[in-house]
Amino acid sequence: MFLGKVIGSVWATQKETGMENLKLMVVQPIDWRGEENGQTVIAADRIGAGIGEQVIVSRGTPARILFTGSSVPIDAIIVGIVDSFEVPGAAGGEG
After folding, report:
1. How far from the centroid of its chain's Cα atoms is residue 32's Cα?
2. What is the pLDDT of residue 43?
């Protein structure tokens, strides 16, 4: 998992089976100080994250197993919206 900031949305009218009604967001990975830390990813979002929010993103098999009983072609999914976090010496996240 990694910490990220939602920086945009992706609209796709044609999607693979299993991805209908699945919101896609552009997420910029960030470090504990809130600074960019890696390449942006497109993550599925079933919990309603919005642009500007800090989120927790799961990647790979853990992201796919959240879709019980179906094989969905996703590599990343937003699994939490961060309200705050505490790391000594780091800027606390604002969700």
Report:
1. 16
2. 97
